[in-house]
Amino acid sequence: MNVIAKSVGILAGVCIMSSCGNSASVSEDKENATTDTTAVKKGKRDASNAQKVFYALPSPIETADLLKKAGATYNKDYLNSLDNSTKYNTSAGRALNLGVYGTDLSFTTIFDASSESLLYLKKVNTLASNLGISEAFGENTMDRMQANSNNRDSLLSIISDAYWTADAYLQDNQRPSTSALIVAGGWIEGLYIATRISQSKNSAEINVRIAEQKLSLDNLIGLMTEQKKDQDVAMILSDLIDLRDSFAKIKTSAGQSATSTDPNTKVTTVGGGAKFDVTKEDISEISKKAEAIRTKIINKS
Amino acid sequence: MFNRYMFVFMLVCCSLFGNNLQAQCKSFAKKNALPKLAPYITNGQLNTTTMSPGQSADMILNFNSGQSYRIVVVGEGVLEAIEFQVMDASGKTVFKNKDGDTYTDTWDFTVQQTTQLTLTVKVPEQVDKTQLNTEGCVSVLIGFKK
After folding, report:
1. A253: contact with B, CB 8 A cutoff
2. Which of B10, B47, B95 has its CB closest to that of A268?
3. Given 2.40.37.10, 3.40.50.2000, 2.60.120.380, 3.40.50.620, which CATH number is that of B2-145?
4. Which H/E stretch holds residue A166?
């Protein structure tokens, strides 16, 4: 009985210590979040009041959709060559390029290039398997995509759900730095494609969409900063901070704040926001840096 | 000898306990939060954490003009109703989910100009202080619609 009582006491003590570990990680996240104040616009809100801060980014599907609406046309030359996949032998190379190929998959799907979508999906599946997250992009996903190959909306949902599953798996298995690298690779590829489209089309609307990535970049830097102890994350983070300096040159002005809610649909329209006065020089500088970072990523083993 | 084996066994059990909470949160998000997002498409990021009464979490979000969005915030049953509010870059509140005693768990919206918003999620303080401090999963999902 004494042995049992002692064992229960030790069990309680160890479990209390385990749950304290969770609080410590929340406090640590808070500490990391406050080291990058640019992730939160300077204003009345102080993110450090919260126990935890999340940084969310638009999905590559959304970015592709915005560019298509702005008049972009599909060009497979903008995408990372499928042949490059043989280079990716390290965890970091695979994670970054899982993001890259995921964005390419989003573009092929948005632009209804269905045969290429399946090819990019296969590459995504291979890299995901190599990273141990095959459940997200495995046979089931492939089968669903083939079954819905003529339904773009269904394809987009399937891809988004797969990335959500992958992110959930990585968070579950204490691999947030791998998740951050995937997000970073995807974001850079999206920016690179947008700048290539801008070079061929020179559309004011596309240039504004590029300029708007300034806000997402702040969040991406916030997300990466939390994982900066990982040397691969630190390397990309350094490049992103340099890129941010180019985005900082874009002039912005605040819109008038007027928010209203439709009483029938209950949908709110949020006023305000930012207006971007972007120049050709701004786009040129951002394009060069985006290309340099992207080249580094797609050539990383 | 028996005590030593017992101690190691309990250590292993407790280390698994932390991982199990995470896995439960993922299952909770998939089962309880993800369905509420339809017909909006998820942004592909899992934003789930365990929270206790009195705690809050912030999410920094960017939204593009020309798109429609939905935010879903769901708390696990052991927590009381989850409060959330959304503020614009100037700190002005643009949405609060609490209306009297009612808490909605979704918010649909569009933005006039591409903008950054801050979502704050808060678990209200425990009303019954005699209960042991409970903690549970809170999931935040973001979706967009073309």
Report:
1. no
2. B95
3. 2.60.120.380
4. helix A152-172
